[in-house]
Amino acid sequence: AAPQVFPSLTGIVLDSAPRMDPKPPGLVLQALGFTFPCIPIMLRKNQYVHPVWTPALFLFFLIKLLAMRLLPRADRRLTFTQVREAVLHDMPTWVPQLYIYSKRDRLISSSSVEEYISGQKRRGANITTKVFADTSHVQHYLKKETEYQEALLAFFERHR
Fold this sequence. Notes:
Blueprint: E1 12-15, H1 27-43, H2 53-70, H3 80-90, E2 97-102, H4 110-122, E3 127-132, H5 140-143, H6 145-158
Parallel strand pairs: 1-2, 2-3
């Protein structure tokens, strides 16, 4: 059964997601994937590398991810396959979905996102996409703010 919030949704926006490759990325790539989006937020400017914060955050995320992998709490021991199947089969198809992603994303490949979109279309979902050619993982808004906002506004205007 869908959570109670699903009936009130007017749209779902997935930015640089989901990763549906059969094998999750390695810990180093996962840690980098969390690190780089945090730097511009922390510095409040369009800068992705900082001499102090980048290595500090990278080590923090790497240690956290390693701890999660090695010492999971009993109630959080879900396999990648279990999570993948839940996302594939429980995303509500009656709610329009906007996928914003890039051809240059190294953490979540565009082919992975497109494979997921194909599956959602087969399930009958109403899909809209905004594909950037040259932005990194979750950097679309920071690098292409106007295009990003236009895609969101058009999506929500079409589906209100």
